């Protein structure tokens, strides 16, 4: 096949992809979140939107997934336009992506078809209805930009359900509540969070569904306080949790974080067995109020600087007197 024929075929293929993309946009609106390289010089957004966030999630799964991508089964809850699901499917993972809005799911389906990703399953469903009986269990569960769109008790129940769905790793990227916090009871535990408006109270179901960056239907959501979110992970059965800061997301807001939770076996202490039961009952406060160490407190720094103003002979004499006292 000569070079001219190859270029002609590529040109026809590109025209087909562009035409199909234009049809998707005409019916469901333009892409708003996930930039995916479709080949042939065609991209869904055309610029690297939130590439740093995608890089962070991919690196977490590569480092902590416990197996090569080809051996992983991954669940993407609230997959939006499929950017993360497609990325992992292209790496060979088996991916199930769940999305509640057909407009988003059809954009993900378009990318799947263009790229020929047979190991990517797209499901139109409410994440609040996802369970083990229907979907089975997964090595990795992704909950990215989703938890903060749920109200109580759904946000609590989703974390418990993710613990049931995962055999190893859950990655949560979410906003957290600060400031005017309120208590919420769930399964005999108290959690703190901040209610946030998702939709106008009088918004119709159609208006709520059309708002692609908001909840499916609940007019209010609950942004859990950082300490309460960690308490919830512990209560759900996760053995450890870590906040990820590397790879960097330089523009990430201060009230948004990436948490990695491990579904492992909690270890009892052999050297101090009595302490294990007590440690299991520890609860974090909603917000971190801990003070810095003594040497970084202002009172210590000022006292240290004031001491340096006193001549050394006098300081030594004072130490001797204090030693004798």
Description of the structure:
- The chain has 325 residues and is of the alpha/beta class.
- It has 2 domains: 16-280, Rossmann fold; 294-324.
- Helix content is 39%, strand content 21%.
- The chain has 11 helices and 12 strands.
- The protein has helices spanning 3-28, 51-64, 83-90, 102-115, 132-135, 154-165, 205-210, 226-236, 273-280, 298-308, 312-324, and strands at residues 37-39, 42-43, 73-77, 94-99, 120-124, 138-144, 166-175, 182-186, 189-197, 220-224, 240-243, 256-262.
- Strands 5-4-3-6-7-12-11 form a 7-stranded mixed beta sheet, sandwiched between helices. It has a 3-stranded antiparallel beta sheet with strand order 8-9-10. It has a two-stranded antiparallel sheet with strand order 1-2.
- Strand 6, helix 6 and strand 7 form a beta-alpha-beta unit.
- Helix 6 crosses helix 8.
- The chain is elongated and about 90 Å long.
- Mean pLDDT is 92; it is low at 2-9.
